[in-house]
Predict the 3D structure of the following.
Amino acid sequence: MSDYATQCLLRLHDERFELEDYQSGVPRWCSGCGDNAILAAVQKLCRDESLHPEKTVFVSGIGCSSRFPHYMKTYGFHGIHGRALPVAEGVRMARPDLNVFVNTGDGDCCSIGAAHWIHAVRYNMNLTVMLHDNEIYGLTKKQASPTSPRGTRSNTTPRGSYLEALNPLTVTLGIQNVSFVAQAVDWIPEVLYQVIRAAYHHKGFSFVRIIQRCPEWLPDLFEPYVKDPKKTMLLTHKDGLQLSDAVARTYTNQKSHDPSNLSAARETASQVDPIPVGILYRNAAVPCYEDLRRSTKLRTAEYIKAGLEAEFDKFTVWPEKQAA
Amino acid sequence: MHSEINAPLAFHLTGVKSAEELEPVETLGLRPALLAAYRDLSPLRYDFPLVLPDKPVDGEFARPLSAVVDAVLEKITDDRVRAQALAKEREIRAHAAIESGSLQRLWNIEPALPVEGQVVDCDAVLPARFFTAAWSAVQAGKTRRFHEEADRLILQLGNILAADLAQSDEGRTPEKLAASLAATEESFDTKALSRLLSKALPERRLPKSRSRRIRTLLATLKSQRFFAGGQAAARPYSFLFYGCAAALQAMRERRTAALEFTQAMAAARLEAGGNYIEAVHDPLLRGLADSALDPALMPDYLVCINAQALKMPAEASALAELLESALPVKILVQHDDLLEKRTAMCAQARLVLGMALGLNDVFFLQSAASNLYPLRGRVLHGFEYPGTALFSVFSGASGRIEGLAPYLVAAAAMEARAFPAFSYDPSARGERWERYSLENNPQPQADWVRHRLDFEDAEHQRASEELAFTLTDFASLDARYAGSFAAVPREKLNGTDVPTLRMVDGENRLQTVIVAEPLARAAERCLDAWRGLQSLARRPVAVEVPVVEVPAPTPAPEAAKPAAAPVAEAPKAPAGDAPYIETPRCTTCEECVKINNRMFVYDANKQAYIADPKAGSYKDLVEAAESCQVSIIHPGKPLDPDEPGLDELLKRAEAFA
């Protein structure tokens, strides 16, 4: 009928966007913060994929990372602590036509929001989730987070933290229905971009842990990794990272890793030194919850009203019934 | 000189029976020996009769009666009830051979069958009913998908108009506000609210042209007649025709409406997505041509015709025009009589096949009616193919073959390669030969189909012969060809090399029958045509090229070598002592741009480079290098030799050389 005609007509649109089309204000992150690198990579992705700003939503929780939606000239939802994922799932369910991104931090996702995180992986809704992991609570001025290495001295752990750090990758890879897990570091922009791009193109819950530097509260934590390229291990594969010559020459510590191998992904993900960077696991066959539950019913005003009435009726006191 | 006539040879060559021992086949009531076992089909549980469900589930538009009954038998443990059900099935099968009917009416026993539909046998009306059922099943899916989308578009466009109204003074009258708030008079002063809103929020209406366009689109979508179930006052168009000329005429008459409908759907999609740009899309949509009609979503026309109708020039030319249209037209050509012309047996079927293959992008399926059920998947595929499809079916119901059910006649035509199963799918991926299929033909790799015949010889001993079932066997069923056969006692052949058939008479006695030369030649042509189809559907054999030792080539001079593929080079230090940044490694951390945003500037990827080294001091460069998180700023040498504190700065810059 006219789907073909529509596609032709849409192609006539001037769909080229510039970085400025996605930029909103000057970020208030500290100078040197890794969040800036993530913001630049995401804006580049939006531009390269010609994402319509009005069809794109960034949802976040609370924390430094969660200021992300303020700096994107798209729709955004700066939510409540730990609840970025349920909000994003709601957006996805109601508006499957939108591109939904989630920006969350190690405290937001792995502490207060841990239950939502686990179930969001299992629901496998089509979201691109970026875990900005600087291994510290930064916005509230240095408290240990679940991913802080053991011994981290902070305002809540002045003698150093007692517990081993939680590994967000192995946790995610252990959950039923996991479909995409990757790791990037903010200091290799080209690889960061490539990983986020692969996550965006994956249909399902794409979980990207981005190790980012916090120059304010943990300035030395990743210094050795930034200085020594050998301490970063790039995971290459024909279905994974494709390195440019420049990156391949600098980061010579490389390992071939097949993203379809879940056992190998779990083994590699548990490594912390050198840091594995690349696509750890991808399985496009896992069904998305919104597809399983999608209704063909039109959400007309009458349909919505009838649904609301039915819900209200459950709690309505009917005097005549009581009298009877 | 020996002058005695060799009677068998003479018959073969001339068709004249010159001796008494050559008996005409019609007096013996002969039929091919390989068909001896098939006389009464009613006790057989085979594909027919078919049940065509009234409401197909999962595209299952036809099911054998035996399969429907089996589904019930699985749940019955009582042997008496099982026997009763099987007896009823036999009864229905016998009844269906006479006339079709409703399954509910025929199956008047318990337990009830889970399907409601029509019972049809393999007869003259089967092809049209079978294809209409398949077409209806596919159209039901298309209609459902259309309404899902159209209803959504209508809702979205309606919402745009509703939002427009809500922002107008007309939408903010006290009455409208009271209705939208569901408020009683006491709870809200809607008059005050109306005044307030009118003052505080000036009217922001849609441009009139857009609002008009949306209303027109809504009207067009609601009044469309292409899919049933809409809100149109007029009846929906019918897409089922029994003549090519009539279908072509209807297509021409509906062309304007089809283009308007296409235009409306395209514009509605753009509007609903907020992508409609008047200056761009108005002229483009007005100029939409037939090529914009997307066959995948337009309703399919189904045209059922008999091959006899193609003798009329108007129908033949209309068929050609429909096939060329590349529009979603599905045409069923039914052949009832393949042996009508003695000089050109099966010619019309081959003509239809040639038309389809010649056009290259027409889906084509040829099948005997007896074989339609196993090929139902391909039939559905033909209906789902986004373009023209041509189905050529031999019904077996010529009325010229007595004592043999149309099912057996149709099956015999396929077995004899007179009407083989064959399909061509232009949408199939892979190599060209993979578009053709001989699926479901018996022994598809062989020339003729061969079967072993076991019989009792004159000495009452068990004997067997391997017999081929050829076009001559098929023709021997038809009384019009009786003159082409003569039965002869085998011993009278005297070793004469003439083509013969093995046939049986009414009492199942084996006979040898000589075939006249014109029919034998027709069989050769039939075999040749079959081989042609085989060659199309066969994977080409890879030819091994012998390895020839060649002397090693002389190395070309350096200059002649092709340039290496360009690779992304890491930024290199510029010549001299100029400052530089390894831009691809920049993490956009803002440090340098905060120090001097005229010297350090972000590029289109928001990665820093030195735009103007003269825009700041050497001190700015050194401080930026020191604060850079990933140490990618290289200050080079100072431009101003008189800059204060240069010695110290140079010392600090050494770390970033």
User: Anything to note?
Assistant: The interface with chain B takes residues 1-6, 8-10, 12-13, 18-19, 27, 29, 31-34, 36-37, 39-40, 43-44, 54, 186-190, 213, 215, 226-227, 244-246, 249-250, 296, 298-300 of chain A (CB under 8 Å). The longest helix of chain A spans residues 35-48. Residues 152 and 243 of chain A are 34 Å apart (CA to CA). The longest strand of chain A covers residues 275-282.
